[in-house]
Amino acid sequence: MKYLCSFFTLTFVLLFSTQASASGNKVGNGGDGVFCKNADHETGQLLDFYENPFKKDIKGSDPYLIAKEIFENLEKVAPKISKPYQKRLSELKEEIEFKSQVSLTDIKDSQHLFQPDSKECKVLQIAIRKAKTLPKEKRFLIRKDLWERLSPVHQAGLLTHEIIYEHLRKLGEPNSIKARKLNNYLYSQDLEAETFWKFIRDLELPIYP
To answer: How far apart are CA 153 and CA 71, in angstroms?
Structure first.
């Protein structure tokens, strides 16, 4: 048990060092969304929530406060995960650069299993986390027009997605599949310790209570 605690502590020390590079990842990683445009309106959804829509009524207009509440809720079942996630969220705003009038390079790490069936809808790259940064360079690049087409809940989902994916990359995950599943779970479930840790085991993630 002492060994597991030491391993877990070391994992998070390495994870949340802002100078740590993504292991073996030269081009970075990021987050995707599904965006639709027609004559009447434009819509946007985070891919995590498009794949598995949730029915919980999450309110709020500030995505950072929504994300904070999601991670605070996680604390009751997994405080060793929640606390570093909350700390990372408090740092995130200063690490984001919003870019206008650009298309972000598509990072081939989502491996999603289906595409929108409408010609008016596309899966687009919203955010990129740079594997390495220069001094004073921001780590996250977000496409501003797509961010603004997301609701506050989906914006919060992008923030939490980036933090979760950052963690799982350090644990060796080669793509965002499990990060999206875990992110969606946090927004869609009433968290209970037994079912949460079963979910983590089923995902085969090396994370411990």
So the answer is: 13
